[in-house]
Amino acid sequence: MSAGVAPLRRAGRVDERLLWPGTGPRFVLLMVLFVTSSATVASAISHSLTDPHNMYVGCALAAGADPQGDYLGVGVATVRADRPFQACLDRFVPHASPWLVPSAVVLLVVAAGVLYWTLPVWKQRRRRLVPVEAIDRDGELPAVLDELVGVAGLTRRPSFVVAPAARTASAVVFGRWRRHVVCLHGGLVAVRQRDPRSFSAVVLHELAHIRNRDIDITYATVALWRVFLLTVLPGYVISAVLALHASLSSPVFGPPSVVATIRDLTSMATMIAFVFLVRADILRTREMYADADALRWGADPAVWHGVGDEVDRGRGRLATVGRAFLAVWRSHPGWQRRREALADTEELFRPSALTLFLTGATASTCAAQLYALGTGVMVHVAADMVAGLVATTVGVTLWRAAARAVLTGDRAPSGLRAGWWLGVGLALGEVLTGSVSGWRVLPRHPEVFALLVVLSVVVTCWTSQFAGLALRCWRGSSLRPVFAVGLLATLVVFALSYDWWQTSGRLFAAGWPYSESAIRTAVKHDLPGPALGRNTLTAIAVVMSVVMPWEADTSLVWAVTALWVLPLLAWAAGATRSAPAWVVRALPPGESAVWQAGRLPSFRRLVLAAAFGACAACGAVVVVLARLHSVRPPSGAMLGQQVLLLTTWLVVVLVAVVMTTAVVSSTAASRFPVPAATVTAGTTGLVGITVAFLLLSADGCLSGLATLRTACTWTPQGAWPLTEVVLPLVLGLAVFASAFTAVAAMTVRHLLRALRPDTGRRARRPPLRLPRPSGRFHRPARTAVVALTCLTALALTTAASLPLDTGAGSGVRSSLTREDLAPASNTTPSAQVLALETDAWLRLGGRKHLTDMSGELLDVLNALDDDRALSDRGYAAHAIRPHCLGLQTAAQRLSAYFPLPDPALQRGWPELLARARSIGDNCRRAIDEGKRDLYIQSMKDILGLTDRVSAVLHDLTTETEDHTMR
To answer: HEC profile for 568-593?
Structure first.
């Protein structure tokens, strides 16, 4: 094979088997959607059966949940009252068997398996098909079919039957695993003698479906979704209508239930539509692959030109839109599209907007249903598997498009369009499932869903551009190794970032889920020392609320590290100068490979940009240390908040330098701007963190930079905890954000290019030049620098991932609990809601606890009627002391119970309970120790406490009764 400098021809066939087609993960995603939807419906039905009185809602009301408020407020209320809420659920909500939902799903899968196994037999009998041997006793037709089976390379011969009543010259294949049936229409058998080329092409096309295993996965999907439509869907609709009917009688629960039910039914209908659209889209793709296989096995291309689309073309824009709408629901592509795919396989390599949109919407629905089932390890694993299927589908699509662009010289996709449609699909799935909107159509902040588009665009742009970079540098005979590495990076980054969205990011769509005051209090408690200003602590608390997941999960750092280490290795290797073996294999047989990878963006410029960024990072670290040295607390003072301030400023300046470097480098790189931005950003952040760690380890040795110590000692164990906090934010979050800045800059360039006036002549792309050979001394130096960079990144990331006990740590969140972290409610419930909350509070234990406390107080007062109460210590120990202990116990139980729903009563409630515990303890001690004055004072306090408790119980009961009467 020859190699030269002329570019490959821009149009023509590229072997469609160059890389994995990627339709398999989409079929698997459909099956996962069946499982998650079935489990969701089974869980809802199980809940309605095991908790017919809806005691779960009662516990939520007692916790302070407002059904007329926002969805976040309900969740926050149950989190603030976490322990009493769990105790209420354990006491009043029946626990269904944990095997109930899995058993229901297994039964549905078994039913689908039975249908899959019996469907071909039923289909064969219903259509009254006859074996080929029955209509051709001479054996001529079976011999022709056997020959075609051999051409297709099938190891197991399918059964051939004929549908005599079918007059069309076509065929269809059906069946199950290892038992496939090719049904030849009577019209096809009739034209075999007259047009053997058409007969062979049709049969080879059907055999290609068997060879590609389309039949197995297609009929498995059909069986699953028929079972779902016939069994699960009716049960879901009935349960939803019954639940809505039960809620309509309540003025509080009625309106939200109507909105939630309509949205859920709309979501279910949309999901079913998505299933049919995804299945049709996959089958259209598989049809074109079967055409390509048949052509490769010797089918005559003229057969596809002898047929046409038998539709009324019509005229006008409306007719065009109508045809396009109907086309997406068909499982077979139009003949014109099939002919274009046979002439040029670009159709099989081009990223489809519909495919990406449907993949995102389906995955978002699956993930929302999974997280609605629970938060266990298996749920997270299943959600990560869904994200992996999405990343695999998108990654394969973009790698195939990049490979074809490299081979043909076409412009490679940037990934912007693919990321946009994937993100829009993910966001639409979130809206339809209502995972954070509850009983509203949209959450409080739907603009947060734009983060899904950001995540998608960053991943797709990096994937597409890294694929183009790696393909130009890969020298192997097969693309599988480099493709596997790139796909794994895409998979891990998308899975982890999407997991962050599911567990943390989407909460911001419902509102601000964290309490800044609680974080400020924890900071003051855990980091003693001269206090920072309130505004400073508030800013730090807000930032910490957002970045805590990144700081806590080092796996995100590993994933993001791959985003800049892999392109760095590819750039260091350089573009290959001659056509590698994988190029030869991707072209049609007999065609010479002509290779022109072109010069990559200058590695020297990349290094210079990274060097400038590294110098800026070093300077920024020095400036921070020098500035904080001037405000260092006096010797001997606690340095807790000084450490927090130092950490905050290091993060701020390093993130700013990293992102600025990324913007500059991506703007200068006209090709592969996202990988260029991640390489320079990662290198800059790595140098900055390394310099900060070294300077902090030698803190005190440089007098002008000493921030925490005055003595000159080498203490890396003291500097590492601070570095461990900074590292995930700089090498994780900042590098990922740098990739987005590169995407934004690239988007601006595309928009400016689109807005330029059309001169009538499109500028030609400059000819690509072969890479210059590296000098004798430059190559070893380049290798050494890249190796040192990669090893340093590996060492730091590994150290941050190890559970080392350094005797210190960030400690910022050590005193925070889930109850503290939840923000306080800033809304006042309506009178109706307050009455319902109060009624639930009383019914589920509050009335009993208050009655117990009142009873203990009344028993003490009754005992005081006896003359011996103030003179006989033995009588007091026998008749009064047990009730003092009972008063303490009742106060402790009320403290462990839900807060009072009425905000006005709740303001004095903690003080009342504390007073009750104190009075009970004083009473006990006075009797045990014989302290008469304390005893008399405690009796007086009991009199006052009795009136207060009676007033609270009266107010709560009156509020509930008034609402019931209204």
So the answer is: HHHHHHCCCCCCCHHHHHHCCCCCCC
